[in-house]
Target: F-box domain-containing protein
Amino acid sequence: MDKSLVCSGSKLETFSDEVFFEIFDRLSPNDLFKTFYGLNSRLNTILTDSRMRFRDNLSSLTPKQFHSYVQNILPQIVDRFISFTFGTYDTDEYQQVHLFLHRYAVDLRLFQHLRTLVIIKMTIDDFPMIQSAISSLKHLVNIRFSVDSEGVDTMSFVHIDNDLLSGPKLKRVKMDMCARTTFFNVTTLSNVEQLSIVWCQMQELTHLLQYSPCLTTLKATICGLNDVDLWTQSICGNLHQRCSSRLNSLKLVIDSIRFDYLLLLLEELGQLRSLWLLLNHYEYLDADKWENLFQTSLIQLDHLDLTIALTKPFQSANSPNQMLMFSPPHIACIKFNTKFWFQRGWRAKLDEYDHCVRLTVSNHALPI
Model:
């Protein structure tokens, strides 16, 4: 065999375009362009090929690197990203999201092939512009947002509408907004399958459920319930008819919501297979109510992780200065360790500290 042919065939430039695409897919655009762009015309052609797709995360870039990237690299490949993350966890370093959206005025609508978008610590004022731009990104599958708590107070709202959730391919959404998130502007059905929310009120969550027929997994922090009478009338016997029958995994952190109202919600979700709850009210120690729920409504439930955390001394929610008279937590723990619970494979344990107690009932808990 001619040795010159072997040597010639081993050169990097002889690889097919597809091989280069596979190799370059594992490198960041920043490294790619610094290392390969300008070496020869073949590599330049591959890096600018419309078939070449990119993934990048700008969160670790220094301010100098970030400025160079946005000015020199991003304009060449913006329409070929499939995954893009920007924003910094440490906002004391520099406001990357603000620079991206305002100083450089990068239009998110240019990311036409984007499938995954992650924005870290945006400001609450930037969200409407971002939400509007997302409606143009028809290939989005995953969205993850977080809002910087700076400037967010108890009166702050983030209003979600159809622009964010109605993407034809959108499946997974995670929103940590540091402010009350509302969904009353959602009026069209979404294809979202996995949803995580921090935080919203009970009636807003149930409104959203009615427009999420594909939802299988939901994680949410819920605080408060306004207009109880109207909410009760709208949910009882109705939610399961409009809500996704696919919702089989539910994870909730509950604050300032009465036990009976939570029961109304759970009774409508009889298809649940996995339930995780973090609760902070003495009412939830009522083992009989839980047992009735699992016997009559959540009969398909396999996995349970129920945590009730109470601060000492225990006081009434209606009369803060009035001490409660009810069975102490260790008595409740005994009631959660009876035959019914054992047959389900669930066990209860009690952890007691100087200022609080925590009762846990789950598949993993060991009996005290």
Q: What stands out?
A: Residues 1-10 have pLDDT under 50 and may be disordered. Residues 13-52 form one domain.
